[in-house]
Amino acid sequence: MRVAIAGAGGIGYSYAAFLAQGGHSPVLWSPSNSRAQDLAQGVPLTATGAIEGQFSVAVAQDPAALLAGADAVILALPAYGHRAVIDRILPHLATGQSVILSAHLSFAALYLSRGLAARGLRCPIIVWNTTASTGRQTGAAAVSVSLVRREVEMTVIPTEGMAAALALCTELFGVRFRPVDSLLAVDLGNLNPTVHCGLALFNLTRMERGETWVQQDHMTPAVCRFLEDLDLERRAVASALGVSARSIHQSYAVPGKVEIAPLAMMMTEVVRIRRPVNGPKSLDTRYVTEDVPFGLVPLVRLADMAGVAVPLHQAAILMFSSLYGRDLALENDLLPDIAPAFGSLDGLRRMAAQGWAAG
After folding, report:
1. Which of 217, 218, 276, 299 is deepest in the core (most CB within 10 A)?
2. What GO biological process term is on the record, naming one (predicted)?
3. 3-state secondary structure of 135
């Protein structure tokens, strides 16, 4: 299957290796045209870690070439790049092509749905609550894949296309997808903003000084208590909206290896069984620049609609804005254009299930 990948960073490279290993034909596109140039010249992609091997990967120079003949397109880039890339691929999408938003945040699917409705296109929009794999580029044509996830929550707009969407995701990435009821469940089930908030806030000086540090080693008991309290707020919002959301403890549990317990106790076992992952070495990290504007800010918007207090989320947004010297809430470029979706909970639920036109 020909699979277009919009984004040529660590996640995009890890997806290309994953798909090529499975016999598919991945095509990478760098929106900045600054990456994957060695791959474009025929250098094989070398993957190490959770995926091992060398793979031939095609590279497109523009969105038209990327989407030509593609069965599916995956957005494999941070949420702050979603709007710009959606705007660039929309003119070249064709009815029937599936669009996968990997690690969906901030209702980007509704922004895409709005654009599809304007063009009169019917494309399944598949959303995941996290990435299927994690990776870091170790060279111009190399990626270290630290993790292939056991489970990814997913849904599709419109929701009646779930069976086909699940079959497509499984064909591409194997049996690891768990369908959930709605887009709300996917966004509220994305734990990256919660975990990254604690890691970045309490290791910020390490990041600022460019130190090398292992993430799991710095999820100390105090940090874990903060993450548990932040998680309680997230789940309170989900409950008020009638959405089932796994706890942070459930997300880290591994049957037979890591049992559900206080998070600090669980992390001791996680450190023992998982490959170490280094934390960011700069303040210019998506742990803040993506997860605060596109993760924490939309959750506060949902909390306001549901009448749920989320003081830790609000405080975190203010603290990061102070630390970075700019109003991070204003950096979300998706919410303003889909503001009509938040006029009422009923309207938001309809759009989340059936797309922009349902509103």
Report:
1. 299
2. pantothenate biosynthetic process
3. strand
